[in-house]
Design a protein that fits this description.
Layout lengths: L1 H53 L6 H9 L3 H11 L7 E4 L6 H14 L47 E2 L7 H7 L4 E6 L2 H11 L2 H4 L8 H5 L3 H5 L12 H5 L10 H14 L2 E4 L3 H12 L12 E3 L7 H10 L1 H21 L2 H20 L4 E5 L4 E5 L5 H7 L2 H50 L2 H6 L1 H28 L2
Parallel strand pairs: 1-2, 1-3, 3-4
Antiparallel strand pairs: 5-7, 6-7
Amino acid sequence: MVLVGIEAKMLTSAQERHLSCLDCLARATKRLRIFSSVFIVCSLIFSSAIYLNSGTLQFNQVQLVHTIYNRTTTQLVGTRRLVECAPVQRIVFLKTHKTAGTSIGTILQRYGYTRNLSFAIPAKNTPVFDCCRYFKRSDVFMYKEQKSELGGDGGETNTFDMLTNHAVYLRPEMDAIVPDALYITSVRDPVDQFESAFVYFDIANQAEIAKVKNPIATFFTNPQHYKQKISYGGRQVQNGQLYDLGLSTEHFLDPFYVKYKIRQLDNEFDLVFVKEYFDESLILMKKLFCWGIDDILYIPKRIANFRFNISENLRETIRKWNHADVLLYEHFNRTLWRKIEEYGAEFWQELDAFRRRIVDVTSLCEAGSQIIKDNVHHMNIIRLGNKTNFCRNLLRMDGEYTALIRKRMQVKEWKNTQRNTSISDLNSKQQTEKGNLNSTKSKLSTNNSPISDTMNGKRITRVRKKIFKKIVKKIKKPVTKAVRKP
């Protein structure tokens, strides 16, 4: 019994020592964790201060500390994204008609042109692709597709960084030209978009109703009749936005196809601008592309100087006529505001700073500018007063950028052709010289061959005999004299 009691006491004391050791280890581990956390926070604050002073990183230290302590995966990923953010340079902008597409297109083209990025532009000398059918990769300027080893198509194609001109959406063909790209587009209130297209494409003259008091009201007295008379821009008269985004005209009145197409576009596009909230959309694009404020600057270039008198009844008629576009617009308008809400409170600070920057740049670049009336499209166009490259790039239209890009591509292609020709000529010269050298070696080897020796056997034999006699004479001469001397 005594032994058992002693063993029990020994076990109890050993367990107590073991537990005390575990407590010490736990306290040490906890202190180490606290120390390491404090060290990491201090290090990151110090490094962020250095970055902030150098102007290469723009985020709040308090937010950084908050993110470190808040150990959720989303916030850590978000912080990592902020630190490792790289500008996006593979972009497809599906430019729809009369939805602020020119303003967005020029922003993208300016960014790409000043950074020497490549563009998929129309093969024909126009700023638009064929808008009467789906986009095809063969419509692209300087498109080249290598033939596969088995013959026919199927080889690798040359790719580009951006696509920004008017085209009818077809995802597989666009992915082949601009792979791994982010996709954006724009929508507008269907009533305003219809009115703008009606004026821009001169629908009233084409439908022969230009002289009436209100051509739009007259058009809707018999829209199917007047629609048949329209050739230029006729596809923009009804649901033009969804048509540009790839919905066939035969499905305009089918609710299933319309809703399915809208869901498909929601999945495939990374951002959809809403024209009525253009600046807000630009801030979202800036964050999506990891660009700076100066990268999204713009100056309004064309301002409509004519509007029809559209009553509420007429407005409702236009909405019914463009019902598919109404569903499209309402969906992406809700999507835009959801993304703004997810952005957070700093969105409005960035928007305010961006608008102040727009005012400053506009006053700088429009000093001394002239306004020219475009009576064909009923618009006022700004002619540049400030001739600096900065302002000139801001005020260029998408058509001007397309012409500059085309010229740059032609010059680059010409230089590549000249270089390839020079290399080809040099290789040809080297091959010729190598061939001549091989021919000479062949002739020499032919002259020293056994056949040649056989053909000239007599001559070689005579030469050898003469040489042999001379050698023998030189050897025998001293011996002969030595023998005759006594």
